[in-house]
Amino acid sequence: xxxxxxxxxxxxxxxxxxxxxxxxxxxxxxxxxxxxxxxxxxxxxxxxxxxxxxxxxxxxxxxxxxxxxxxxxxxxxxxxxxxxxxxxxxxxxxxxxxxxxxxxxxxxxxxxxxxxxxxxxxxxxxxxxxxxxxxxxxxxxxxxxxxxxxxxxxxxxxxxxxxxxxxxxxxxxxxxxxxxxxxxxxxxxxxxxxxxxxxxxxxxxxxxxxxxxxxxxxxxxxxxxxxxxxxxxxxxxxxxxxxxxxxxxxxxxxxxxxxxxxxxxxxxxxxxxxxxxxxxxxxxxxxxxxxxxxxxxxxxxxxxxxxxxxxxxxxxxxxxxxxxxxxxxxxxxxxxxxxxxxxxxxxxxxxxxxxx
Length: 356
Hints:
Blueprint: H1 5-37, H2 43-58, E1 60-68, E2 75-81, H3 85-88, E3 92-93, H4 98-106, E4 110-112, H5 126-129, E5 136-143, E6 146-156, H6 164-195, E7 203-204, H7 205-222, E8 226-233, H8 236-243, H9 245-262, E9 268-273, E10 276-282, H10 286-302, E11 317-324, H11 331-347, E12 353-355
Parallel strand pairs: 7-9, 11-12
Antiparallel strand pairs: 1-2, 1-6, 2-3, 4-5, 5-6, 8-10, 8-11, 9-10
């Protein structure tokens, strides 16, 4: 039976009302997301919130958030949810490669209903997307005209296929996410600058006491040992006198690079002041510290500083080692003992190692 004009108007009005209600629900959700994302300036918390909201709103089977590496300009997986998530965490995608790379390159969101029929889909990353046809939703993370990364979703849980409305939701969410990520990164950079030495890029002496306090508390709680290495460059004043302070700063930076190459992942390097450096070696007694410092000393002695400036300068250093809690349980006294051990080396010929 055919609807009357009045019935047709009723149906149309009901559809419009339902659509309006849906839009209002979306606005409330986006308002909540905006407030939540801008309530924190911690990058880890921001990423956690994004993960929760995407899973709840769009229900993808697999999805990822990739951020742009500013040095290599590659896309790096920051969040990976779904099949083969751990395996793909170390994978990098070139700008322009696959759907994610294309979206990062163009800055335009994409909805791909079926990857099997789309030539832009990269077969190199098929192991992440899974076998067979896939529906992909991808949006760039853009802040102040800069592409920070992309969010890529693969297959809806229920239908398997994303719709145009889903793309609208994702792009709106991505706009909020980009602002939150940029703000969190800005705060992170300011925090890093406040604790980082501007010449060497190592932690500065102000941050040393924070690091030491944490390590003392951790070692006390778990009944662990750790060692502190105090090192001072030998005859560094001659570098400044003969080649100028600019070249002297360059030597300090190169020294920091040598230290970085020899320190372990858990070790912490600090520029203490002038030409003095400190190495904090967690869960390491004097014997282990001595072995590491011997390797470092050899690397320093074999290095040619300012080689790219045609100078090929040789530098040596004097090293002192103290152990917590064997030598002392006081953090300030630990620094003093390592310093005194280093000073004994200075007094007995330099270019050597002494234990507290």
